[in-house]
Amino acid sequence: METAKVLPKGQITIPKDVRTALGVGAGDRVMLVSDGDRIVMMNPATYAVEWLGSQMTGKANQAGFATEDDVADYITQMRRDAAPR
Fold first, then answer.
1. Residue 59 to residues 15, 49, 74: CA-CA distances in angstroms?
2. Which residues make beta-bridge pairs with 39?
3. Strand partners, 41
4. In degrees to the nearest 10, what's the CA dihedral of 46, 23, 26, 15?
5. Which among 35, 55, 72, 81 is most buried, taking Cβ atoms within 10 Å?
6. What tens digit of pLDDT does each residue of 4-44 get?
7. 74 Cβ partners below 8 Å, 6+ apart?
8. pTM of the model
9. Is the separation of the CB atoms in 43 and 31 below 8 Å?
10. What are the start-end ranges of the H helices in 1-85?
11. In a 3-state reduction of DSSP, which class is residue 75?
């Protein structure tokens, strides 16, 4: 658990351990997500992957993919079909 002091302009310094855990550094952006009565700080890329995953839940089964190998085979076939002849 870490704390940060809010400066007069609303700025805070994110503790090093938290920056490391988020995978962010100088110049990077962080996302602040409201989760009920708390705010969660996230790496925007992580948030995007989680959001996409939530949107895709069940879509593979609907498309007839039962395993990751099914998806890989489909991608391989699509690449073959799209390759210049």
1. 39, 15, 14
2. 34
3. 32
4. 110
5. 72
6. 999 999 999 999 999 999 999 999 999 998 999 999 999 99
7. 65
8. 0.57
9. yes
10. 16-22, 44-56, 59-62, 68-82
11. helix
